Fold each of these.
Amino acid sequence: MLQLVMMVLNDVSQLDALLDAWSDAGAKGITVLHSTGMERLRGGGSRDDTPLFPSLRNLLERDDLHHRTLFTVVDDDALVDRLIAAAQAVVGDLNQANTGILFTIPVGRAIGLDRRDP
């Protein structure tokens, strides 16, 4: 069964290592999005040097407010297990604070995953 594997990475400095680990584990394509959690936006990630009236651009440019969300679609439960193990080898135990979260979602259909050059 196809699975969407998604991970919200807390420490963006670990992105390259995580991409390498997932690629080495067998992920064929990985998409990365910039993302921000509610806690960070509402003050859990605030700093003393934030302007009183920050512009949206200033907020979007601050690295400490960002996560990276990675996702890939895979067709093998063993590969899902390898991706989870690879993620935890990079970031540590995902049950610990400030590492990230990882989850899977069953995929009913996926078109364009098995592309071949003409």
Amino acid sequence: MVDFDLFDAATRDASDAALQSVRDTGCPVVWTEKNGGHWIVSNYELVAAAFRDWERFSSERIHPEQNAIAFNNSKLPPCLPEESDPPRWHGYRRALAVILSPQASERLRGRARFWTEHYLDQVVAQGECDFVHDLTCPVPAAVTLEWLGYPRQDWQMFSDAFHGVSAYPAGSPEHRKASEAYGPVLTRIAEELRDRIASPRDDALTAIAHHEVDGERLPEDIAQSITFLTTVGGIDTTTSLTGAALLHLAQHPADRQRLIDEPGLLPMATEEFLRFYPPARAHKRIVAADTEFAGVEMKRGEAVLLSEVAAGRDDAEFPDADQFVIDRNPNRHVSFGVGIHRCPGSHLARIVFSETITAVLARMPDYEIALDRVEEYPDWAMVGGWSRIPATFTPSAPTPSAPPPSAPTSGTPTAGAS
């Protein structure tokens, strides 16, 4: 039994320390009475095992209003395919398997590079910017929303809504504005999917709208749920990871210089950024039936917290786990999850991240961050990130880029390619 409240820690350091205190008990599975009571699994081997064991640790909602994968955001609509288990999971997941495969994601690298250069061009001559608002938030949003096929006039509303609910304190004007935008966002998702049924296009919305399971097109509410999760998942998690990396490189100049001198090191460094700064810090699961796990008796319906942060700091899996090792190898982190619910957008996320970091190091190699003005998310329970990262650098001339195409050129399958 531990006195652990997931929502007490308002900063990354405090959240990391609270999870460390759980690991320091020496018990890899503990119980807390806080937030309705739940188990906490905190070592690498058991977190990975529980992620893989969907039969015992379910992602299905038992109660319609109770989120099965997060301890907050209970009012969100079901997030499919993650909030589902086999057998129905198979058909839902296939809606994303082709359009987010490694090959399909790689075809979007050019768009990730274009949007990175585009947003850098807006600020390089100024010699200062806010990395969050000027780069790490708009780039993943542009890549994701263009690939899906939303009209450009919707992009700001989507980006502000999904970023704002995490970036600003509950009750603040910014948070209220972001929360109020969820209704219009859901409306636009429904409208765009209906439009793709009537007029298929070469975009990901069309692929989802026309996806079939057992010869039947996805019901409208299921297609909307899959689209919602795909949209929100592509916008703010990469924002968090890129912000963490830019902060880290500002504070660790030796790591920054290695990436400048050895650009081929970036793929390996990306995995270490993911291990050390996981954007999704924890996931919830529901015990599907009375069971024993790691010597602990668990009851059906009990909630379980699987901590990616704690798993990533397990010395048994990662020697010197509390140290950032830029060329760590092997690095079998669980920051994208493992098992059937592994993040389907992980390939695209890595591409967007690597293009952004590469461009910043090429065009702003001497950037400095005003650490006393950096603002973190107000809540580090389930996700982490930064609301503001002000930076200065030597000004340079913009490099005009080609205008964006009128429609994504992603190679996304059209209707009937499900």
Amino acid sequence: MGNVRAALSALLGLLAIATMPVAVLATRYFEQYDLVHAAVAIPLALLLAFVALGFARSAGTYDAVRLGRAGGGGAARAGRLFAWGAIWLSGSCAVAVAIWGILEYQASR
């Protein structure tokens, strides 16, 4: 049996990185949902990414201590990669929303 924590890390990391594109894509299909509303997905993506990082970290130590082998290294590595990609993507989306907010504030003055 493989390392379940490593597999969860990869799955959650992939979900985290897909959160923002799905939120932006949803703005095309729902009229009441504007692009700025996609910013609600930023905290969700960050939460999933940090949970994925936690699973990736515990995947290696769990197997090494309990089973005497390190299994799941590739999945844990993929989970870390996806999670860090999601953190960077969420950060860039947060910067975009902040700039939009500043421009809206300046335009309303």
